[in-house]
Amino acid sequence: MKKTIILTWLMLIMAFAAMAAENGVFMEFHRMSKPGKHTQVNRAPMRLPIIEVTYDTDAKTVKVIGDESIDAEAFIYNSVGDLVDYSAYLNTTLSISAPGIYTICIQGNGWYAEGDISV
After folding, report:
1. Which residue of 53, 60, 82, 108 has the fewest CB atoms within a 10 Å radius of its CB?
2. Which residues contact 33 (CB under 8 A, 6 or more apart)?
3. pTM
4. What percent of the chain clears pLDDT 90, i.e. is strictly above it?
5. Residue-by-residue DSSP string for 49-114
6. Which residues of 89-118 are buried (b: 16+ CB within 10 A; e: fewer)?
7. Spatial distance between the Cα atoms of 34 and 41, rounded to a whole number of angstroms
8. Do 24 and 53 form a contact (C-beta atoms < 8 A)?
9. What is the rounded distance in angstroms from the CA atom of residue 84 to the CA atom of residue 78?
């Protein structure tokens, strides 16, 4: 009986934790290449920075978190392509005011990442 009660409590706790207000945003990383400059195949692995992007549905904000050593800028564009919010630093919180589809772009030295969210 004790095991059943404990299992029920654990399931309830997990259900409440699953209804968090923050949702992760999938980011697709790309390498910027210089056309005409790269004639050889580079077989070295690409080192991607670890960046976490979450959207808070209650506060209508996008939080971008990464290593302090990464030099990057964060942009949010609406579906028309207009700039909605910008930060010159990686660790930042950007706000979204109106509903719609937005593109998050994080641009670093030699790479960029893009992700879409629907508000």
Report:
1. 82
2. none
3. 0.68
4. 29
5. --EEEEEETTTTEEEEEE-TT--EEEEEEETTS-EEEEESSSSEEEE--S-SEEEEEEEESSEEEE
6. ebebebebeeeeebebbbebeebbbbbebe
7. 13
8. yes
9. 6
